[in-house]
Amino acid sequence: MSTVALRCEGLVHVYREADTDVAALRGIDLVVQEAERIALLGPSGSGKSTLMAIVAGILRPSAGRISVFGVDIERARERDLLRIRRDLLGLMLQGAATNLLLHEDAEANLAWALRGKPRADATLGRRILRSNGLGRDLRPVSALIPSEQQIVALAVSMAARPRLLIADEPTSQLDDASRDHLLDLFVDTAAAEGTAVLLVTHDEDVARRMQRMIHLRDGRIGEEASDEGRFAVIGTDGSVQLPTALRESWPAGALVDVDEVAAGEIRLRLRGGEGER
Ligand SMILES: Nc1ncnc2c1ncn2[C@@H]1O[C@H](COP(=O)(O)OP(=O)(O)OP(=O)(O)O)[C@@H](O)[C@H]1O
User: Fold this and answer.
1) Distance 277 CA to ligand 1 centre (A)
2) Could you tell me the CA-to-CA distances from 101 to 82, 141, 154, 158, 177 in Å, in that order?
3) pLDDT category, 273, cuts 50, 70, 90?
4) 255/251 Cα distance (integer angstroms)
5) Is 67 within a domain?
6) In-domain check, residue 261
7) Ligand 1 centre from 151 Cα, in Å?
């Protein structure tokens, strides 16, 4: 039986501002199996970063449940969260400065990533650096070009051999050739290590390198695509999002007839729509 790396059930997050609340996640149901690689896509403001921050234990959800390798995150004590972050999670956040000590060289960054992890060694991180000509590079990370910085960031985030790697837009600053090189390295390393991946991107070409592509819209999972095709996803409350192209002609609050025309097939008809006027 395969192990579940991540399970989200009815996950809701509301940002509480002084005079207004923003519902960033409105009921996310998602299961990521061990060693499975998932891309998270969606327009700006759809909730991708919020979901990542909750999975990383940085934010607590307003409602719903989330577990990482069977540990209930929202009920975990601070000590358990620290252990999950240390032993199970790898983080590759947006921007080199967030992940790396810019004034230190790559090797010092690896050492920093492995501090307090007595069972981890630097073998994997060094292998990633070496295979990209950065093994003996003594320059501070700030002097590296963006593609090299991202290779160091990958080496650092994978150094402790996490079981779930969370990557937020890892290729966004790169040209196409560097992007493809980093993705090859990223996918090969995760596959060889059996690391589950949750990767946020706006780039469909990047997303296609993962096994499943989850599309978020308005804080919900709208669609999922894989080798098997592209599908709408039924939410916990039974709702299904309309394809974006139909949203204008099928506005919120419009009435529809829903008929089951055959087993496994329903027909939606807009009341007052074409053929009914
Ligand atoms: N700290 C915050 N306080 C209040 N509202 C926030 C905060 N962070 C995000 N939001 C709001 O929550 C919603 C989801 O934001 P989020 O950053 O998760 O989306 P996103 O899909 O990651 O967007 P992007 O692709 O632009 O990074 C948006 O409406 C955003 O304005």
Assistant:
1) 40
2) 21, 7, 14, 16, 26
3) low
4) 9
5) no
6) yes
7) 27
Q: How many structural domains compose the chain?
A: 1
Locus of tokens 């992890």:
117
Q: Per the domain annotation, does 256 fall within a domain? A: yes
Q: In the prediction, which pLDDT does 239 show?
A: 84
* Complex ipTM > 0.95: yes
Helix 123-130 vs helix 146-158: crossing angle, to nearest 10: 160
Q: CA 220 to CA 47: how far, in whole Å?
A: 8
Q: Is 26 a residue whose pLDDT tops 50?
A: yes
Residue 12 CA, chain-centre distance (Å), reads 16
Element (H, E) at 98: helix 96-99
Q: Is the CB of 24 under 6 A from ligand 1?
A: yes
Q: 223 in helix, strand or coil?
A: strand
Q: pLDDT tens for residues 43-83?
A: 999 999 999 999 988 888 999 999 999 988 878 888 888 88
Would you say residue 61 lies in a domain?
no
- Domain span at residue 277 reads 245-277
Residue with CA at minimum distance from ligand 1 atom 29: 45
Let me know: does 257 contact 245? Beta carbons within 8 Å: no
> Which protein residue has the closest C-alpha to ligand 1 atom 26?
44
